[in-house]
């Protein structure tokens, strides 16, 4: 049974969503502000967190930033209906997905299940690595799906599940272009719709992490209007 942390200052959302998730077989912990959630996370991490952005004491952005210092567990943001800035910023900070308020609880459940499936696929090596080896090496890049481990020039790089899957999809075939639609298929289930901005934000975050290890990192190339390509170095 997967444990989901639901963090929102709207008690109606906490009550209704937790009931829905529990009915779907999840174990749910609820928190009405970011600080309360962080205190709990410092003792024991859930399998996934669903975070509202605007909350008292500590908002969702601050909570995500602190969470990413210790864990790459999947995170979904709940964002206001028209606040695209929050969506983009959240993705660039390391969220895996976002759902706009007001939202369908069925949609949220599907997003949660999709993320958990992706995490399990990475952990069990079901994401398309070559059968003859569990470890993929492309130039200075080394990826180990079983350990969810990535290194560049011998230095470890911590990636979220989404970032890992996107990098793996690109690095599997150096020199070949992956369109945004193809990358969406890798990172998201068919029933989950995301727009181009979501993939672009994940790629920007991925590049930023790689460049924090190596400022000269340039293996991921953007082909404007087409997609992305991994160039083996």
Biggest β-sheet: strands ordered side by side in the sheet = 2-1-3-4-5
Query: Which class best fits the helix and strand makeup?
Result: alpha/beta
Shape: globular
What share of the residues lie within helices?
A: 40-55%
Can you characterise this structure?
The chain is globular and about 50 Å long. A 5-stranded parallel sheet has the order 2-1-3-4-5, sandwiched between helices. Strands 6-7-8-9 form a 4-stranded antiparallel sheet, with helices on one face. Helix 2 runs parallel beside helix 3 (60-67), helix 4 runs parallel beside helix 8 (196-213) and helix 6 (161-171) crosses helix 8 (196-213). Residues 127-133 have low confidence and may be disordered. It is of the alpha/beta class and 233 residues long. 41% of the residues lie in helices and 21% in strands.
């Amino acid at each position: 049974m997967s444990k989901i942390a639901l963090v929102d200052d709207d008690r109606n959302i906490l009550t209704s969503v937790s009931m829905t998730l529990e009915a779907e077989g999840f174990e749910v912990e609820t928190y009405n502000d970011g600080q309360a959630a962080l205190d709990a996370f410092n003792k024991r991490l859930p399998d996934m967190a669903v975070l509202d952005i605007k909350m008292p004491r500590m908002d969702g952005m601050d909570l995500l930033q602190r969470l990413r210092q210790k864990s790459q567990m999947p995170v979904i943001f709940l964002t206001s209906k028209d606040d695209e800035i929050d969506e983009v910023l959240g993705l660039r900070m390391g969220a895996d997905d976002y759902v706009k308020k007001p939202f369908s609880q069925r949609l949220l459940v599907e997003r949660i299940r999709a993320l958990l499936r992706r995490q399990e696929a990475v952990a069990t090596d079901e994401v398309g690595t070559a059968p003859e080896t569990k470890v993929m090496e492309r130039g200075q890049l080394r990826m180990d799906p079983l350990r969810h481990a990535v290194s560049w020039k011998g230095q470890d790089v911590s990636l979220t599940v989404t970032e890992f899957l996107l990098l793996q999809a690109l690095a599997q075939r150096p020199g070949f272009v992956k369109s945004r639609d193809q990358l969406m298929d890798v990172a998201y289930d068919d029933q989950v719709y995301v727009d181009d901005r979501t993939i672009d934000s994940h790629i920007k975050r991925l590049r930023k992490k790689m460049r924090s290890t190596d400022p000269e990192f340039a293996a991921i190339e953007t082909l404007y209007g087409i997609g992305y390509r991994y160039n083996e170095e």
